[in-house]
Amino acid sequence: MWDFCTNALERAKLRGASYGDVRVMHLRQRDLTTKNGQVGTLAQSESIGIGVRVLANGAWGFASTDRLTRDGVAACAAQAVSIAKASALAKRSNVVMAPEKAYVDSWQSPFRKDPFEISLDTQLALLLAADGEMRKVKGVTLTETNMQFRKIDSWFASSIGSRIHQRKVISGCGIGATSFQGGEIQKRSYPNSFGGQHALEGYELVESLDLMKHAPVIADEAAALHAATHCPEKFGTLILAGNQLGLQIHESIGHPIELDRVLGQEANFAGTSFLTLDQLNKLKYASNLVNVVADARLDHGCGLGTFAYDDEGVPAQCTDIIKDGKFHGYLSNRETAHLIGLERSSGTMRTESWNRLPIIRMTNVSLLPGTWDYNDLIADTSDGILMETNRSWSIDDRRYQFQFSTEIGWEIKSGKRVRMLKNPSYSGITTEFWNSCDAICKFDHWTLWGTPNCGKGQPMQTMGTGHGAAPARFRNVKIGTAFSKQ
Amino acid sequence: MSASPKRRSIGKTERPELLSPRELRGIVETVLRLARSTDTAETEVHVDEVADALTRFANNGIHQNVFEHVLTVSVRLAAGGRTARATTNRLDEDSLRTTIEASLSLAHSQPRDPRLPPMPGKQSYRAVNRFVKPTAALTPEDRARAVRLVCDLAEKKGQAAAGIFSSGMSQTAVGNSRGLFATYCETHSQFSITMQEDPAASWAKADSADVRNIYPQKLAERASEKAHLAVKTTELAPGRYTVILEPAAVLDLVGFMFYDFAATAVQDKRSCLNDRMGKPLFGKNIRIVDDVFHPLQKGAPFDGEGIPRQKVLLVDRGVPKSLVYSRASAKAARRKPTGHGFALPNEYGEAPMNLVFSGGDSPVEEMVASTDRGLLVTRLWYIREVDPYEKVMTGMTRDGLFLVENGRVTGAVKNFRFNQSLIEMLKNVELMSPSARTTGEESFEMVVPAMKVRDFHFSEVTKF
Q: pLDDT digits over B21-77, tens only?
């Protein structure tokens, strides 16, 4: 693979590139699903190719091909340079990047059990058994289960001398039960909605989830939700479970801190950000309890945003995003870091595949644990609502105003969880919401959740991101708006 | 013999070529030949090729500019009620053999499904031609010059332009061991522009198989005028308003209904049409068909199994009349397949992908003139489903929300969040424009009108 990389870089230089980086990537994926006791999707895929990114005449060009021959790679590199020169016809200024060292390294994500070495019989048997447990529950009308495994090898080389090989193994698994009754559809998912939990782990992730224990629980809840009390509409105390808080972090912290959005580069599609440059180190983003980092290092955990180097050859880092409630840092790449006067990229350039340009992406954007025991938090809440597992999510294109609904809610009265609530939702303004946080649970309750489906870029790229979260409490939150009939 | 066709080299200017029909068929036949050496009863092959380019600009300059050329071969083997799919982009015979073996291995590991239909035999297809040479021939220099034009316009107006200009071509072939073979190719182009005039922005976008139907300067001028108009905003209280939804806003909302018309979704009881088929549901002015042959539509005239797509009347005079069916869901419902199935195996079944709403005869200007007090909506953003049965959707207005008073636009207002049932919305449509091919950012392209809708529910307001 290194020969292809060298070939591409040499050809790009010959054609006039002042900088180049290339990624040969080999992606392997296995998808398994069941529905109502039958196998749904059963598919395996592989894709291999090269992407070449160059600077020529001060502007960017990118080309990709799956024709991995000497001629194919050379043509691809030449194409990238031609495109860069065309870009220069409408460039605003010459691209300059923050400095970075060259690295020669090889890294593999840790895993105990290679999911591609576990027999399909074993994997399907587990999914079908969990599916069967859910179907035993009266009132359940649709059962679904899924597993997804990925193995990604990437060979990165750049004209400053970097040569980095990385291998990542990613696993994901989840189950869901749906109940249609009386003109109402209710659903419960485990351990999270939209495909469950995903992490930079092997098959041990699946084994840790204990699907058989949780399948009947969520099936019972899906059926029981029809008879539950409707979530009230009010301002009140809200406790978010970790799997919902992870998405709250993603949408209302992770996206607005992307420096490409802040600088207007995503204005046409993903949107911009309220975190304009004048807010850095000034904005009171959240209450003093709140500390958020963007941490791609393995020390932070095996999240979907964990790696050794980003796809621009910058080592994984931990960046303070919110420190004691104050806005402290952005997600940047080498180009945007230079644009705002930072000494170095924060290492967040990531690409979905060999045929996509690396763009600024969340790594593991996590809320650091607090000090509360979960039981103490519930006991300390005289009147509130606990919401678990996302059902819908939406936020405006500058990331101020959001609305989330969850699959299930629980009324808290006098320090006790007293009854189930259906159709829970809450909404607010990002900074007002985070400033209302008055309790965060400790590390014992903290999970590094995986969001596997974050869409960004044109052409669209899907990326996995990590979000560590423990249950947390927020005061005076607007609750119940989504289902308001007014 | 290798299945790898000799792909044409790419010259200095980007003029990629797709495989010839003979080369495409050659790959299918190679896979079918290799699969015959296994003990598999049936084999299906998909070949998909894409050559796409996209020029992206922001802050009045190009900042990203990409090209990709991808060819994938996907193999599905079926035997004894078991089937599975394996996909590769490596075309040498060893890799294709490995892919066939992977499909076979996956299939053998699953329990038998007695409902799995045998693969279909040879079919006949109505020809469609959506390959436009000038689109295929567009170069990075062509796109850069168009972008330069709109960026210059923005600079003259004191605005910042951001957007994309994309062009490309794709083709697909489906063949199986029972003699079925189908191919389709098309070109595509899009231009999308956001004009920013601090603190406001507005947007315009066009999509066509023929790049000569795309007018970047006109789109830029339209977005520019609306952005300027949106600079000063007032804040209105949330509540129910009469809205005039421009076609992109209609598209991105009604696009969330397409899967409800899948027979599998109804059989799974996750469609909003459960227990509602044949009963009045929307206003009598709502008529929806799925029609891949409509002159403003795109897409292959066959489905994931190679079954020819039929034109299907989904809603007539507000009454849901028909669903779309794959072969499996048709068998379960004792109907005929309509040619809307996804590639097997999958758990979703099928969906209509070529929706056409019948429009009216009231242009947007007439809707504005007929409105005493209402809101003109340019586009919507981040739309998600809140209630799947009542089809309540939430989302935000974006890039230009304008107050209409006494028949004219009087100013811009701050963006709202909506929580609105689509069923209720389609009961409340007062006027419609003629339908047009429309492109948004949240749904695939369809043929829809602009709509004037009463009592649209805005629940909260944001800060801009």
A: 999 999 999 999 999 988 778 999 999 999 999 999 999 999 999 999 999 999 999
Q: Could you tell me the CA-to-CA distances from A459 to A79, A357, B179 in Å, in that order? A: 18, 9, 36
Considering only alpha carbons, which residue of chain A is nearest residue B344?
Answer: A41
Which residues 126-185 of chain B have a CB within 8 Å of chain A?
139-141, 143-145, 147-148, 151, 160, 162-164, 166
Question: What is the number of helices (H) and of strands (E) in chain B?
Answer: 10, 20
- Does the beta-carbon distance from B105 to A120 stay under 8 Å? yes
Give tens-digit pLDDT for A355-407.
999 999 999 999 999 999 999 999 999 999 999 999 999 999 999 999 999 99
Neighbours of A435 (CB within 10 A): 18
Are B237 and B126 in a shared domain? no
Nearest CA in chain B to A46: B88
Do B171 and B31 reside in the same domain of the chain? Answer: yes
Q: pLDDT tens digits, residue range B191-248?
A: 999 999 999 999 999 999 999 999 999 999 999 999 999 999 999 999 999 999 999 9
Which positions in chain A touch B66 (Cβ < 8 Å)? 62-64, 83, 356-357, 459
The verdict on residue B324 lying in a domain is: yes
| Class of domain A2-227 (CATH, top level) | alpha beta
Dist. CA A481–CA A424, nearest whole Å = 9
Examine the domain organization and report whether B326 and B434 are in the same domain.
yes
Assess whether B176 and B323 both reside in one domain.
Answer: no
Residue B254, in any domain of the structure = yes
Q: How many C-beta atoms surround the C-beta of residue A25 within 10 A?
A: 24
Hey, what amino acid is at A162?
S
| Contact residues on chain A for B9, CB-CB shorter than 8 A | 71, 75
Scan for tokens 């109940």, then name that residue: A179
Residue B16 included in any domain: no
Provide the domain limits for residue B387: 232-464
ipTM of the complex: 0.96
Given CB atoms, is B85 within the 8 Å cutoff of chain A?
yes
| Separation between Cα atoms, residue B240 and residue B260, nearest integer Å | 26
* Statement to judge: residues B171 and B316 lie in one domain: no
Listed in sequence order, the residues at least 6 apart from A102 whose beta carbon sits closer than 8 Å to its beta carbon are A158, A160, A161, A162, A313
Full-model pTM: 0.96
Helix (H, G, I), strand (E, B) or coil at A247: helix
User: Are B172 and B285 part of one and the same domain?
Assistant: no
| Alpha carbons B302 and B310: distance in angstroms, whole number | 9
Q: Are residues B310 and B430 in the same domain?
A: yes
Three-point CA angle B173, B115, B103, nearest 5° = 45
Question: Do B345 and B432 sit in the same domain of this protein?
Answer: yes
CB B242 within 8 A of CB B455: yes
- Rounded to an integer, the average pLDDT of B145-158 is 98
What pLDDT is attached to residue B11?
40
A49–B89: do the CB atoms touch at under 8 Å?
yes
- Domain count across chain B: 2
Give a yes or no: residue B146 inside a domain.
no
d(CA A287, CA A281): 15
Q: Could you tell me the CATH number of the domain that includes residue B31?
A: 3.30.2290.10
H/E stretch holding B331 reads helix B327-333
| Interface size, chain A vs chain B, as Cβ–Cβ contacts under 8 Å | 290
Tokens 């065309």 sit on residue? A86
Residues of A in contact with B326 (CB under 8 A): none
Q: At what angle do helices A120-135 and A211-224 cross, to 10 degrees?
A: 30
User: Beta strands of A218-338 (E only): which ranges?
Assistant: 229-230, 234-240, 292-295, 318-323, 326-327
C-alpha B102/C-alpha B96 separation (Å) is 10
Chain B residues near residue A40 by CB distance under 8 angstroms: 345-347
Helix (H, G, I), strand (E, B) or coil at A405: strand
